[in-house]
Amino acid sequence: MVTVEDGFPFAGVGAEIIALINETRGFDYLRGPVQRVTAIDIPMPYAKNLEDAVVPHADSIVKAVQNVMKFQ
Predict the structure, then answer these.
(1) Which of 54, 37, 41, 39 minimizes the C-alpha distance to 3?
(2) Is 36 helix (H, G, I), strand (E, B) or coil?
(3) DSSP 3-state assignment of 35?
(4) What is the pLDDT of residue 31?
(5) Rounded to whole angstroms, how far apart are CA atoms 34 and 9?
(6) Strand locations in the chain (E)
(7) Rounded CA separation 5/50 (Å)
(8) Is 0.90 surpassed by the pTM of this model?
(9) CB-based contact 1:35 (threshold 8 Å)
(10) What is the pLDDT of residues 3-51, one digit of tens each?
(11) Which of 22, 28, 39, 55 is the most exposed place for a label (fewest CB within 10 A)?
């Protein structure tokens, strides 16, 4: 399972989804690890080029999915 969001990793939506799965014993039904793809945990910059470097992109999502698929 891979969650993707452009927010921070700490207390983000992806973290809550994973916590809910873990608390409801849904983790037992997963075939592979859980991985989050989030923005880098730094204050969001105002400059467009720096903002683009902080938020997740397609290549980081593909890398996370490939990592999870190794366990299938």
Answers:
(1) 37
(2) strand
(3) strand
(4) 79
(5) 13
(6) 2-4, 35-37
(7) 17
(8) no
(9) yes
(10) 999 888 888 888 888 888 888 887 778 877 888 999 988 888 889 999 9
(11) 28
pLDDT score for 29: 81
Q: Which among 33, 26, 36, 35 is positioned nearest to 72, based on CA atoms?
A: 33
Q: Is 68:1 a contact under the CB 8 Å cutoff?
A: yes
Residue type, 28: D
Task: Name the residue type at position 40.
Answer: I
Quick one: DSSP state of residue 44? Answer: P
As a whole number of angstroms, the distance between CA 47 and CA 55 comes to 13
Domain ranges in the chain are 2-69
Closest CA to 37 of 56, 65, 62, 22: 56
- The fold adopted by the segment(s) 2-69 is Rossmann fold (3.40.50)
Task: Provide the 10 A C-beta neighbour count for residue 37.
Answer: 19
